[in-house]
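Q: what sequence does this backbone want?
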């Protein structure tokens, strides 16, 4: 199962299920884990209760366990095609116990967005662009020069970089057939920083604008820079401080405390949440849909100058909202 070119994958493709190489590789990891857990048993004798009880003992997130179950369900369905007449059992769903990211306060944004908090100006601009356009970190890593239209103050979001550095030609939750491109207006401050950044680095239209030694910024490295910036800004505690106070030992929190006070979760995605919450003060949820990418409407010929003007006209007037977005003194 999940072997490129196999009959199973072709059936998935025709049923409209994901069949990209990365998706198949991820599914194979679950298949190998399932084989390790239950491979010595005939499938006809494995029950849902047994699988769920096994997962209770596995130290993984609810999301991981639900994906494990989803793969197991497909194994049951595929077994029927190979002469094993068994009805797929009904599984309960595990709670998604991951804590959601919090948004930044105005004071935190003011403290965070200082060039001295970052190793160089590129990372300052990188995270400022994420906030200014409500981007996911993979979308920011994937920005090419041709996506920015300075005269129109517009950014076309047309893909993202996966952790392995592969750039898609479609947006998050999109597919090659339904890419879900979107357009986002940018504040003048961010445009000025982006213009200076691009002007100092000769780039071709298809070149990524955020790179290190000619290679895309690794997501793990960007997340590490973000965490260090939180500490420099005084928003988060350093591990050394918590260890000194006896709260952190051997890399584990030993008291009810975290690197960020009040047990909050601030991650790069918090900048996207902050963008949405701030823009929501000025726009309805419906008006924000095309700006956040939560829509099924595709853009056609989105790099065509005429269509860019049409796209811009379709967006709500945002001058006041964009100015307030980067006014960190306002709440």
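A:
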């Amino acid at each position: 199962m999940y072997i490129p070119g196999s009959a199973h994958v072709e059936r998935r493709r025709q049923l409209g299920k994901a069949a990209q190489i990365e998706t198949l590789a991820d599914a194979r990891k679950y298949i190998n884990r399932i084989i390790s857990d239950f491979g010595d048993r005939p499938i006809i004798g494995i029950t849902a209760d047994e699988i769920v009880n096994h997962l209770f003992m596995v130290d993984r997130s609810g999301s991981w366990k639900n994906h494990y179950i989803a793969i197991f369900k497909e194994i049951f369905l595929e077994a029927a095609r190979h002469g094993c007449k068994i009805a797929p059992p009904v599984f309960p769903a595990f709670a998604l116990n991951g804590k959601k990211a919090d948004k930044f306060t105005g004071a935190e944004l003011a403290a965070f967005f200082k060039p001295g908090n970052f190793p160089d100006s590129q990372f300052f601009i990188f995270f400022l662009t994420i906030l200014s356009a409500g981007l996911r970190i993979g979308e920011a890593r994937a920005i090419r020069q041709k996506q920015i239209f300075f005269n129109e103050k517009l950014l076309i979001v047309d893909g993202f970089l996966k952790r392995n550095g592969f750039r898609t030609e479609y947006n998050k939750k999109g597919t090659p057939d339904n890419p879900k491109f979107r357009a986002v207006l940018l504040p003048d401050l961010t445009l000025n920083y982006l213009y200076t950044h691009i002007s100092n680095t000769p780039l071709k239209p298809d070149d990524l604008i955020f790179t290190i030694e000619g290679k895309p910024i690794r997501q793990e490295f960007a997340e590490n820079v973000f965490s260090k910036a939180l500490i420099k800004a005084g928003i988060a505690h350093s591990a050394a401080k918590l260890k000194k106070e006896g709260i952190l030992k051997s890399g584990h929190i030993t008291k009810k405390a975290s690197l960020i006070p009040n047990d909050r979760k601030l991650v790069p995605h918090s900048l996207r949440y902050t963008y949405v919450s701030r823009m929501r003060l000025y726009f309805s949820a419906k008006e924000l849909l095309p700006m956040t990418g939560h829509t099924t409407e595709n853009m056609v010929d989105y790099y065509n100058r005429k269509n860019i003007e049409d796209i811009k006209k379709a967006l709500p007037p945002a001058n006041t909202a964009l100015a307030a977005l980067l006014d960190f003194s306002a709440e």
